User: Fold this.
Amino acid sequence: IPQERIDLNKSIFFDTKKRSEFNLKSYDAFINTDFSVKPRKIYPDVFYDVDAIGFQGKGLFFSDRLIDAIQDAGIVGLHVDDTEMEMNP
Assistant:
């Protein structure tokens, strides 16, 4: 999701150093956050009907639907590595 598609007024972030939640007021503030800031709740301004989504610079998010399917299948662990994809025309 491009950061411009995130509703910052609703989204909640967590500062792992200060141990507190907060909202970001601008996209500049979002872009300049350091690695101690993690998203807690993200609200895109459009609906994405997907089960896993990457958020620029902030990691992956999984849908409740996917989490439920993993738990129902009895999967007890999941390891996700950083990867890159290159699309050739």
